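Support case: user asked for a sample of complex input and structure output to validate their parser. Sending the pair below.
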Amino acid sequence: MAAILSTVPDPGPPPPPAPAPAVDLRADFAASGLPEIFDELDREMVGLAPIKRRLREIAALLLVDRARQRFGLAVGAPTLHMSFTGNPGTGKTTLALKMAAILHRLGYVRRGHLVTVTRDDLVGQYIGHTAPKTKEVLKRAAGGVLFIDEAYYLYRPENERDYGQEAIEILLQVMENQRDDLVVILAGYADRMERFFQANPGFRSRVAHHIDFPDYGEGELLDIGERQLAAMNYRLSPRARTVFAQYIALRRGQSHFANGRSVRNALDRARLRQASRLFQREDGPLSVDDLTVIEAEDILASRVFAATAATEEAAP
Amino acid sequence: MNAIDKRDSRDRYTAGVMKYRDMGYWQPDYEPKDTDVIAVFRITPQDGVDPIEAAAAVAGESSTATWTVVWTDRLTACDKYRAKAHRVEPVPGAPDSWFAYIAYDLDLFEPGSIANLTASIIGNVFGFKPLKALRLEDMRLPVAYVKTFDGPPTGIVVERERLDKFGRPLLGATVKPKLGLSGRNYGRVVYEALKGGLDFTKDDENINSQPFMHWRDRFLYCMEAVNRAQAATGEIKGTYLNVTAATMEDMYERAEFAKSIGSVVVMIDLVIGYTAIQSMSKWARRNDMVLHLHRAGHSTYTRQKSHGVSFRVIAKWMRLAGVDHIHAGTVVGKLEGDPATTKGYYDICREDFLPRRLENGIFFDQSFASLRKTLPVASGGIHAGQMHQLLDLFGDDVVLQFGGGTIGHPMGIQAGATANRVALEAMVLARNEGRDIVHEGPEILAAAARHCLPLRQALDVWKDVTFNYTSTDAPDFVPTASVAG
Amino acid sequence: MRITQGTFSFLPDLTDEQITAQVQYCIDQGWAVNIEFTDDPHPRNTYWDMWGLPMFEVRDAAGVMVELAACRKVYGDRYIRLSGFDASHGWESVRLSFIVNRPANEPGFALERQESEGRNVRYTTRAYAAQLPEGERYS
């Protein structure tokens, strides 16, 4: 930051008329290393089209802001704190990592690392414990991005002696006074976050960008699952693919569904079943294909299907 | 494993003279064991002598052989005790000489004795007639053997903790003139230099106890100077009191006296011999004393490439023998020292593990098995204007010793010391800030001189002083580099 | 007088910007930065008081500078030093140490001599400031 600010010209005597200075945003963009990050994002992350669009918008804003600074048009450091809202497994942490990289490439944070914390990392157990804990986390995050997951747990109005309030006050102060040193991302469920902001208007006013992460569609979840398998050198048989699509449709309707994370857990269990199936087979050596392919039966054994079957049976 | 097949043993031990290579000292298939000591020699055989026979002869003469067959070999496990020449390679660019690699079984050596090691490796063999010249280039000392030595009594880490000095080279100066000052005048130089900003002053190698200054007198005045400077600066200071003397008894007496008057460091010369060095190392270890070694005399056998012992081998021996400081060259100063070769010496002193690096003259991987580190000393013809080069070449763990470069300052010794300290701190600060000190060095010095008149004067007086001569001892594997003035 | 302990005592007092650069250097080497303060500048006073624990996990100098500011607020009338600690094998020691805060007035040290046998002298260095109790020495 210091380096950027120091390029702001002295407000001295008006400069002699010169050819109108120009800025090539496209060249800036290419030189910033951002194209690689966006390519990565498109390659690695399924769907999320509105999120990716928001990320590009923010990057464009910052790029323009940087260009304006060069001509002395910018007023102060921009506020960059953000809130990421959405259900579990919708890619908030992954996006936060990318955001840290983007901010680093653009020079808005000096190191670009991400420190992920929850209430327990910030709030202490006894009097005098919270401030050092919160400050310790802030020191670790300095120069990077602090990601506070389920930030609303900091605020517990039902307990008026809750130490969370102390952490909140320190955070608010740092978010205001040390904008050069770190960027804070508050994350969690949309509805609870909204209530949190209502109760703590100080946070709302310090957060510049709100990004809402929608749940994945069924097709996207299937795609995510297949990518996860491919990364581990597994694949679904054609029938297993059909069954897994059914699995996703059923599982989405159940409680505690966590998008990408639930898909990963389901596939981990399918791999376990594949292994014991292969182990129990008695028809000679296994081929590479045998070791790679997840069959329909590996997925059908899930209790998601059993529960449905049971419900159907029980139904009149 | 045994080169001598049982069937041939009658022939092998028939009285008479036979070739060394046929006596088992040449074993091209031999794989050195992890516990073997390995030496690499540069051999220059007499005209007409086969290099392999010459290498076998070196192996034989530095281990079990004599000029003729002796039946008493058969009373021993002689295959084990025979040194084994196992590789002979031409020296690049030198048609008459060869590198011979010879492996020695660990049982050939007494644990923890440099005298015993050297009596074998550089004993009779260097005068052997069939060779025109012989040089010991490097040695691989196995961990099993390294562990039989105590190593430096203090080491770099503990010395720094004891002195409370971190993150920069230490600064020293040798008191000049070397000879003739009285104790009282000598102490004046020490006081001025230490108060001005140096960490250490040093007796020269040949200051012992002469008609113009008795050793006790020197020690007492020096300690007055050290304590005065310490109180004037709030910093720990030291002066290397040279305890070199004619006998061990004299040396112990001087060292004990140095301890009793509160010195943190004593000094010895290489010429006292390996055994005396090891004795003084053990004394220093018992008495919490930093032991400084001046390598007086080494150039008689280290400087010429064809004959003698490379300094890298001396440095290894001295780290085992246990000295805390050793003079290891300056590259840019007045004494012999090619940059690549000198880097090899510094690595030997300071690294725990040293990989084979032929471009630095390091022929073997060498582990020091957590033996403490020896602090190298750069001394001789260096001045403040070279600070960027010195820091770049040697890093933080070195004593930079400016004798003339302190005492010869036009405004006096204190000014000379201050100039050096300011130049050093400014350069360390700049390096840590990420600046390219090699190229921006003169600029950094000029900027520091703006707030330091003594530095400005030093840069002015010595700006053109360089010692650019071709080195006699450059590595064989790359062209000789030289430091630009 | 000016005590010259620490790496940069012969240079003009470092600015916060210069201190930040040195702290970042330590962090980039993988060293933990530690803040210590004292009002006893004796050269053999090894254990200055610690301002919290060494900062093992800080990635950016700003994290350290916040603590330094806090320490100065409380102990601005004393000596404060920063050090970089290297925990790697073979070092396990301080690798850089420099003073970042000094009392306005540094009265220095007296050197006391006790003559003993054989022209031998026993020396004692005594800080003038340390004649007062701790906490009252520079206020």
